[in-house]
Amino acid sequence: MTTTQQALLTELEPVVEANLNRHLEIAKPWNPHDYVPWSRGRDFAFLGGQDWSPEDSQLDDVSKAAMIVNLLTEDNLPSYHREIATRFGPDGAWGQWVGQWTAEEGRHAIAIRDYLLVTRGVDPVALEAGRMVHMAAGYDSGDKSPIEALAYVSFQELATRISHRNTGRASGCPIAEQLLTRIATDENLHMVFYRNLVDAALDITPNATMQAIAREVINFQMPGSTMPGFAENAIAIAKAGIYDLRSHLDDVVRPVLRFWRVFERENLDGEGDRARDELAAFLDLVEEKASYYDQRREERLAAVAR
């Protein structure tokens, strides 16, 4: 870490402490076991019961794909912890936040997996095989600077919230929707924490922060993009409207940029101004692509109706 990056972390520490205290006041504790319909559970063949068959699941194929992607993404928590712990350190308010965030995130995979196993929503053998492959590969965001990491998670946490929320709605199961809504609430609070830090960084080092924001928006990928079958599942999820380019643009990127007043700020010059212009041009391209996909979806729906 450079001296400049360390100086920014030090200057942001009071903001971290204030937002950590705010988070602890707002966040409500919850128990994963409360959201799982345990009465629907039964033994698998290893204990004398019956192994999973496709007829056991009440989820459609798209809901299965979305739940698996969401769960395997949450499974990689050890890698995510390493990513933020190495950038923000174990001490002071930064270290306290890293620990709090990790503990809260840990509930998500526990609850989703318990729900899927008890309800026999997906093939547990395939699910475990996918977990092993994905976690063994881990997650590496590269050489992101601390401010790039903060910008990335501001978008990623909100994207995860939208994905969980829409998966719950699409599942057709009130219990799954209740569970994923609870998880989405966590993700939203985490997004607010990171978003507020970037907002403060825009006042402290506006040009460097704007460059980081532009890079992360332009190169954004979900942390689960390397899992087995992600591309195929992502296409199915997008076609169903659970999470697509339109969702990413209108529900994730644009709201966060508006909060930061990216296109209204007057404290930019040089590289910061150029990065903002590059970001604006990129958003125009994404809008064109999203509109094209919107039209294609309407055409498919119309064809089905006919």
TrEMBL record:
Homodimer. GO terms for cellular component: cytosol. GO terms for biological process: fatty acid biosynthetic process. InterPro entries: Fatty_acid_desaturase-2, Ferritin-like_SF, RNR-like. This is Fatty acid desaturase. It comes from the Bacteria. Its cofactor is Fe(2+); Fe cation. Keywords: Fatty acid biosynthesis, Fatty acid metabolism, Iron, Lipid biosynthesis, Lipid metabolism, Metal-binding, Oxidoreductase. It comes from Mycolicibacterium moriokaense. Fe cation 2 binds at residues 105, 157, 187, 190.
